[in-house]
Amino acid sequence: MSTLTDPTFSSIRYLPTNEAYDRWAAVYDTDGNFLQALDTIELKELFPRFLRSIRSPTPWRIVDLGCGTGRNTTLLLTVPDIEEVIALDSSKGMLEVARSRLQQKVDGAGSLNIEPGRTVPNLRLEVFDMLVSPSPPPSAQQADGVISTLVVEHVPLSTFFAHISQMLRPGGVLLLTNMHAHMGGISQAGFVDAETGEKIRPTSYAHTVADVLAEAKRWGLEVEEAGEAGEGEAGVTERVVDENMVEKLGPRSRKWVGVTCWFGGLFRKRVN
Q1: Upper half-sphere CA count for residue 22 (Cβ side, 13 Å)
Q2: Which of 74, 81, 84 is nearest to 121 (CA)?
Q3: Are 98 and 87 in contact (CB under 8 A)?
């Protein structure tokens, strides 16, 4: 369990998302971010559902949109049916951390738990800012699946789903997670810069689950309801932090007990 508590800060400074994450990159994985820890726990069930939901023939091309430091890109590199992983992020600082982290994993493939004789998927890391680019890079189009975790908080829903729609092939699947609006109405992503003592916050939106579902549908993506994703699983999960979770999530999660902090689900692009 993390022993980190909320650090004190002298003031709050709002920065463009790219710049904020460039500065956050060096400590992003070590500053006790409980929402990231919660996301990792929830993905233990959601990620396998995502893989089971992909219907296109293997091998697959998968996009990690907003890959950050490569936390989930590492998962993708372990999947036998994936041939190509396209990892995109708007922050050069986060991509630098991801590139170093993933290269170490690829060079020592044993750490990825890859079966002997199986090759690691081709990996491409690219700078991509959906706020300024009208379309995704060609390498990220006609994808069989897209994974995007804790990203859409920083992007207008219309912009996000416009790009998802361009990335996925018909029938392709999106795995989406995000900070819940219950938490987003109280706080937002950010960190304390150790050099300046400032609380750095990027642009954030408190998207509701209902708004996400509605905007996804407008762009041709339908949530995977119970029975479609297999084994009777629900489409969108909303997670409330409770006392029993604090030990795993760390002390910074304690003040969020009783608050719905996370949601996640699968969406399929219509075939028509």
Answers
A1: 9
A2: 84
A3: yes
Long-range contacts of 233-238 (CB under 8 A, 24+ apart): 233/49, 234/265, 235/265, 235/266, 236/209, 236/263, 236/264, 236/265, 237/42, 237/46, 237/263, 237/264, 237/265, 238/180, 238/209, 238/262, 238/263
254 within 8 A of 4, measured Cβ to Cβ: no
How many C-beta atoms surround the C-beta of residue 65 within 10 A?
28
DSSP state of 4: -
Cis bond leading into 59, ω under 30°? yes
- Across the chain, mean pLDDT equals 88
174-211 pLDDT per residue, tens: 999 999 999 999 988 887 777 787 888 888 999 999 99
The pLDDT assigned to 221 comes to 97
pTM of the model: 0.89
CA distance 105 to 196: 33
Q: Does residue 4 or residue 65 have the better pLDDT? A: 65
